[in-house]
Structure formats: C-alpha cells, structure tokens
Amino acid sequence: MSRNIWTLPQLPPNVAAMLRYALKRLLSLIISLAIASLIIFFVIEVAPGDPAQFMLGLNAQPDTVAALRAELGLDVPKWERYLNWVGGMLTGDFGTSYTYRTPVAEMIADRLWVSLPLALYALTLSTLIAFPAGIYAAARRGRAGDVTVMGATQLGVAIPNFWFAMMLVLIFAINLRWFSAGGFAGWDKGLWTGLHSLTLPAIALALPQAAILARVMRSSLLDILGEDFMRTARAKGLSRRQALWRHGVRNALIPVLTIIGLQFAFLIAGGIIIEQVFYLPGLGRLIFQSISSRDLIVVESVVMLLVFAVIVVNFLVDLAYAAVDPRLRSRT
Amino acid sequence: MSLLTIQNLSLSIHGTPILNNVSLSIAPGEIHAVTGESGSGKSMTAFTVMQLLPNGTKTTGQVTLDGTDILAASEDTMCTIRGNDVGMIFQEPMTALNPVKTIGDQVMETILIHKAMSPKDAETRARDVLDRVGLPADRFPLSRYPHELSGGQRQRVVIAMAIALRPKLLIADEPTTALDVTTQAQILDLLKGLVAEEGMGMLMITHDLAVVADMAHTITVMRQGQVVESAPTQALLADMQHDYTKMLFAASTHQVDLPDKPAPSPLLEVQNVSRDYRLPRTQLFAPPGVFRAVKNVSFTIEKGERLGLVGESGCGKSTLTRAILGLEEVQEGQILLDGEPVFSGHKPNLAVRRKMQVVFQDPFGSFNPRHRVDRLITEPFHLLPNPPKGLKREEAIAEALIAVGLAPSDARKYIHEFSGGQRQRIAIARALIIRPELILFDEAVSALDVSVRAQILDLLADLCRQYDLTYLFISHDLSVVRSVTDRVLVMKSGEIVEQGVTEQVFTNPAHPYTRDLIAAAPVLPDLGRGAA
Q: Nearest CA to CA, how far is B275 from chain A (Å)?
C-alpha cells in the first residue's frame, strides 16, 4: 500500500477548513514577523548616537571606544549584526545589555512576568464587565438601563486612567488598606499574593477598556438585532431574550474581537503610566529606561517582543473570527 | 369554519394610522393573497397576525386564529403560537438565515423551541422537512451553512423552518420577489403543493399580480391601509369592481408606445468580449484559477434602438454592463462606441465615456443623501472638458428636470424629499444632462410599484422620441423587457444563447433556455384590455 505521507488523514470538512485557514494565517504571521524585525532593526540603527560612545562618556579615548565597539559586536557590517540578532533571538539569546551588562533575555523575562499577567488580568476584567453591560444595554435600547450603562461608559472613556489609578490607591490602599499602594510582591510568595498586588493596577487599566468594549458590544449587537434573521428567529417562536442570546450575541462578536485584540496589544506595552503610578517593574518602564540610556539592544529586543505579542494576538483573533463565523473558514 | 379571521383591524404606529378597518378571513387549505403597492399596509397585516410589530404600535379590532384572540394574547402565548401554529416565510432569503449556524440547527430549532420532540426525533424530522422542500440529504446535509447555498435553496430552508411543525397557517411575505423566474416557479409550486397536502391555510403577501392570479384562491387588494376589493380570484379577474384594482392590473400589463427605429447604423459594437475573474488560490504554489464570467460575447446596438438583455442572476449581465461602461477592462475582444474603444491603454476612454450614462436599480441607495438635487444631477459634468457654468448650468438643470416631469424648483431639494418613482426620475435626469447617445438601464424599474413603473416606462419612450436616445435595458423582468425593447438578447452562464426581434423571441423562442424562462414567468390571464 503506497500512501503519500503528505496527505492529511481524513478529517471532517469543517475541521479541515479550519486547519487550512489556521495554516494560512500562520504563514502570514511568520512573514509579518520577518518584515517587522527588519524594520525595527534598521530604524533603530539609523537613530543617532553611538552606544559605545555613550557608555564611556564624552572624554573617552578613541581606541577605548573602538575596543568597546568590538566587544559589543558593533564593528561588523549591519547585515551581519541583523542576522546575529535574529539568530540569537531564535535561540533565546537576546544579547547583553549595554548599560547593565546583564543578559537582555533575563531582564525581559523578569518584566514579562509582571506585564503579561497584568495585561491578561486587565483584559479578563474588562471582558467580564463589558460583555454583560453591552448586552444589557442593547437589550434595553433607549430605556433607563441603557441610558445608565451608556452614561457610565461615557465617564469610563473620559476619565484619565492615572487619575483613576490614584483614586483607587487613595480609597482602597490608603483609607481601606485592602491593597498595598504600589510595588509587586512577586510570584514566589504564591499566586494569590501576586494577583493581589496586581489587582488595583488591573482595575485601573481595565475600566476604561471595558467602557470602550461595552459600547462596541452594544452597537454591534444593535446592528445584529435589526437583521432579518433575528425576525426569522422570532417567527419560529423564540422570545426576545432567546433570540438575542442564541442568534444575536455570536454574530455580534466579530467587531468585539477586533477591539479585544487591539486592547491586549495596548495593555502589554501601554501600561507605562499605570506602572509608574503603582511602582511596578513592567515592560513599559524597562523600555522607557533603556531608551533614555540608549541601550539599543534592549530597546530592539523589547520592541520586537511587543511586535511579536501583537502579531500573535492578531493571529489568535483571526482564529477566533473563524471559530465564530463559518464564512471565513470556507474562504480559502 | 375559517382558520384566520381579521375583523375591522386598525393599526397605528406612534399615532400615524397604518391600517384602517381591514377585514379578511382564510379557511384551511385556502391560499389568500393580499396585494397592493408599497405602503398599502399588506405586510403590516401579516405582522399583526404574528404580533411581530414595531414598538409604539396600537391595534384595535379582532384577529382570531383557530379560536385564539391574537390581539389579546400575551407575549408568552404568542411565543407558543409562532412557529407552531403559524409559520412565516420572508422576502429576503439571503439574509433571513443566521449565517453562523448550520441549516440543520436552524430547522431543528423550530422543533426544539416548542419542545415538540426529543432532539433525536427533531433531527429526523428536520431531515424529512428538508427532503420535502427539495434539499436532499446527499447534497444538503444538515451540517451545511447558509452561505454555501443559493438564494432559492436558502428560501427552501426558510420554508422548511416554517413548516417543520406542520402549522395551520403559513404566512408568506413576498416569498419569491428576490428570486429568479425559474426559481420563483419552483418555490411557488412547492408552496402550492404544501398547502394542498398539509391542508394549511396560506396568507400570501405579494405585489406581483401575475403571481397572485396564478396562485391564489382569493384575492384582497389593499391601498393606503384599506381593503379596496376582496373576492375569489376568478370572480375578481372577470369583474373588477374598483377603479384602483382595474388600474393596477392595467399598469402591470402596460404596453409602451415606442417611436419607430431609425435606419440601422451601429452605435455600440461588442466584439468577442470575454471577462475573467481570478479565483482565490486553492494551493499555495499552484497558479490561481480563473472564472470566465462573460464568454466570447458579440452583439451590436444600432443607433436609436432599444435593446433588452435578459438573464438570471449570475449569468454575467452585470459584468457585461460594467465592461460596456468602461469600469473594468476585458481580457479578450473589444467594445467600440461610435467606432472608438471604451477602454484604451488600460484606462477608461473619457471621450467615449461621456457618450453613455447609466441608471441603476436602487432609487434609495444610488444618491448621496447630503447633496441637493442640482449637485446630484450635474455629477456627469466632470466627464466634459468644459462643463457649463453659471446661468448655462442652471438652464441645463432646469431642462433635465422638466424633461423627466419634475419642476426646476426641485433642484434645491434633498433626495429624501422624493418618492421612489421621483428618485428614479432624478436618476434619469442625471443620465440625461450631458446628452448621452446611449443610456444603460440596469434593472432600473425593478424596485418600483407597477403604477409608477408604467409611468417611468412611458417617460422613457417620450425621451427616446425627443432626444434620439439609444437604450440598453438590462433586466430579469421579462414583461418589462418585452414592452420597451425592439430586440432582445438572452444570456446564460456568460454566453448569449439567443438574440432576435423581441416579439419573435417571446412568441417563438428558439433556444430551450429561453423557452424555460418564458414558461417559468408567471403571466396575467388575458383580461380583455377593453375592460380595464
């Protein structure tokens, strides 16, 4: 029996379509990453300022600078440095920080263990608030409940998050003493302790996002409620509520997923203000510090990591689209 | 004993009266058609029976379905009646199904929501109904999604959902308006068969009098929320009591008085034109496939001629229209207007482009709502090297508006201030204003009520006489094409299968496909024109 090893085993058509779709998205993910790494490397390279010169100060001898350049690997052609950089990242070696002389991988890993859980925590909170609020508002369009929820989201969008973060500290840390006012307890003291110290920052990040997400959920669902198939559902004998949950919500998810993807990307890197308010050792502060000290290798690596996160999140959002909407699966 | 009785039903939405003293009744096994033009309240009557009315609706009168007083029934009671005792079919099959659920789930939902059977039996029943409506298991498994089906097939799924629990009453709101004639004929046959077999009563809402005459046992004619006339079909057709009914039937068989054709001299020449679309790649490194939407089409339109182009959706008539207008480049062959190509050097040829204009189907979607009429109808001026300015521009606007039966003062109004028929007149004025030689009408009267349609067709004949125009009339509506064209082309799967003098093609079609089309199109029985 000759069987081509490349033919996939017999899969149900829906699964096969989903798999084909996922492979396609994966290919475009790899291409995007390659292009992004090129852009990041060369844009940062053309930025003025020689790291070796910067590290040694203005009065350094030219031969000392040259020696340091050689040590840092800055004396080889750009292309070779790019390939070294990419090759290093693929094997987990992000180079050595110019300023701190510690491996960049370690620095990033430490920070990532704060930023990533914080982003996921905030995203979970924001989704848990936004979905019910948006669906509730859409179901009661124009009535008191809708007006109240929409008023609240208006406030949520308008309030600056650092001010909101300070209010949270004032109330829950200083007055009620439920949480500490800042700093991160670390994960080694247990999951609960870690989460506890991330709670106030997560709320501060989540509420404005939840306000936006709830508005998107509401308007998307309202569009769907006006669709012909909602009337068909009612004509079958579904009550308003049944029709909303069985036929409305899933169809309304596509724009909502798009926003969730964008928000997650923002939450990973964009928490810098909140990190400052709560003294959290996160990625945002790392990137800020390394830009000020011209620690290019750290900047490059963190930016690449953020790009990687954004692209992976987009990939996941694409998969989620296809899981929600069968039309996307078959468009191969 | 009648199944559904509507007595003195009046309805208003936020104080605006919509229905006024409507009464009708339907017996089991009876097909009762309610017809009338848009705004007559026929759909609202149907939605009252389902109690699926917009917010702010007030109803008075009595609606009794099989002993239940519908107007007094609670929402919970209505939920048990909908889908169980009454099934409903809608106009737009393309959007009537939930795109993210399989057809099996959607048919089963009707059964499960009423807890009529166990999920396993419901699945068997869903399969049976889908078989019954002509969607056999081998080609249409329950796991299909709506987007994998055509419009006619989707309408069959909607019908399957509506009849899954063998309701006593079936309400069909314009069930075939969005479908091609051959599909329409099949769906109408299916509905007729179902009513006869299951003994259901059917309330059918339609504006298409030919369908009504063919299907219904009883006809009710409505106008502005009131019943004008109601009688058994044969009696009503033989002896119309009301002037409005007579006018409706006369308008739908309206014959246009076309001016004579001038001596033949070619205006538009389409020579061996093919148009390909690239298909998405199926494999990463294989070359993408192509879909040939128009296959080696040739024809000529003579100056002053009215040419019809008929065919069902997907036959390539829209693609051909876009190619003629120079909106898309063709892959093979060429299109010449007055001897010059419409597309030269990969760009539309403006010198030719200004000699033709187009009028589209949708009088609501084809205007920018934020512009005034004068700006809307002068849009084609951008094709001219020296567009008229100042007083000359005003004169051109006034002349175009008068030509289509509107007043020069309408130039300062916005589009929402006009009715559908008036908007279509404005679309014609927009086409007319740069004095083109050729006007393409892409389903230009399909969205209009019959009485308005008759007026617009008369207008087209007048304009043709005044301005020496040549028309290309693209439509799926055979009766319209028959009344306004001299010659007709029949298109199928990208090819022109038959062309000839209109009357000859219609009375003596040569190609089997043309014969199918003409046989499928419902026709009004000859009522004796003198009576109307």
A: 22
Contacts of B451 (CB under 8 A, 6+ apart): B37, B247, B248, B251
Shortest CA gap A194–chain B (Å): 40
Q: Give the chain B residue whose CA is nearest to the CA of A244.
A: B98
Query: Is A232–B97 a contact, with Cβ atoms under 8 angstroms apart?
Result: yes
Question: pLDDT category, B530, cuts 50, 70, 90?
Answer: very low
Alpha carbons within 13 angstroms on the beta-carbon side of residue B521 total 18
What residues of chain B lie within 8 A of the CB of A330, using their CB? 145, 147-148
* Residue B46 contacts A, CB cutoff 8 Å: no
Q: Give B80's pLDDT tier (boundaries 50, 70, 90).
A: very high
Name the E strands within B448-525: 470-475, 487-492, 495-501
pLDDT digits (tens, 9 = 90+) for A152-165: 999 988 988 888 88
Are B460 and B256 in contact, with CB atoms under 8 Å apart?
A: yes
Q: Do A229 and B97 make contact, defined as CB atoms within 8 angstroms?
A: yes
In chain B, what residues touch A247 (CB-CB under 8 Å)?
98, 101
We report the CATH number of the domain holding residue B246 as: 3.40.50.300
Closest partner residue to A227 (CB to CB) among B87, B95, B148 is B95
**B161–A251 CB contact, under 8 Å:** no
pLDDT at B76: 92
Cβ atoms of A220 and A258 closer than 8 Å? no
* pLDDT band (50, 70, 90) for residue A9: low
Under the phi-then-psi rule, with left for phi > 0, alpha for psi from -120 to 50, and beta for the rest, what region is B435? left
pLDDT at residue number A2: 47
Could you tell me whether strands B201-205 and B31-35 are parallel, antiparallel, or unpaired per DSSP bridges?
parallel
pLDDT per residue as tens digits for the range A64-117: 888 877 777 777 788 888 888 888 888 888 877 877 778 888 888 888 888 888
- Number of independent structural domains in chain B: 1
How far, CA to CA in Å, does B529 sit from each of A279, B130, B235, B365? 90, 43, 17, 36
Beta strand B343-344 pairing with B347-348: antiparallel
Please judge whether A237 and B110 are an interchain contact, meaning their C-beta atoms are less than 8 angstroms apart: yes
The whole-number pLDDT of residue B527 equals 61
Q: Is residue B213 part of a domain?
A: yes
Task: Tell me the pLDDT band of B532, cut-offs 50, 70 and 90.
Answer: very low
Average pLDDT of the residues in A188-208:
85
Least CB–CB distance from A237: residue in B82, B95, B145: B82
Task: Say which of A229, A246, A326 has its CB closest to residue B95.
Answer: A229
Q: Chain B 131-150, CB below 8 Å of chain A: which residues?
A: 143, 145, 147-148
Q: What is the DSSP letter of B465?
A: H
B462-485 pLDDT per residue, tens: 898 888 899 999 988 888 898 899
Do B49 and B203 meet the contact criterion of CB atoms below 8 Å apart?
yes
What residues of B are in contact with residue A237 (Cβ under 8 Å)?
A: 79-84, 110, 113-114
The verdict on a CB contact (< 8 Å) between A228 and B95 is yes
Kindly state whether residue B84 falls inside one of the protein's structural domains: yes
Q: Is residue B28 part of a domain?
A: yes
Residue ranges of domains in chain A, CATH in brackets: 36-93 (no CATH), 108-330 (1.10.3720.10)
Domain span holding position B114: 4-252
Task: Name the amino acid, one letter, at A37.
Answer: S
Report how far Cα A62 is from the mean position of its chain's Cα atoms: 43
pLDDT by residue (tens digit) across A114-138?
888 899 999 999 999 999 999 999 9
Residue B95 lies in a domain: yes
Asked whether the predicted pLDDT for residue A3 surpasses 90, the reply is no
Question: A326 to chain B: which residues are within 8 Å by CB?
Answer: 99-100, 145, 147
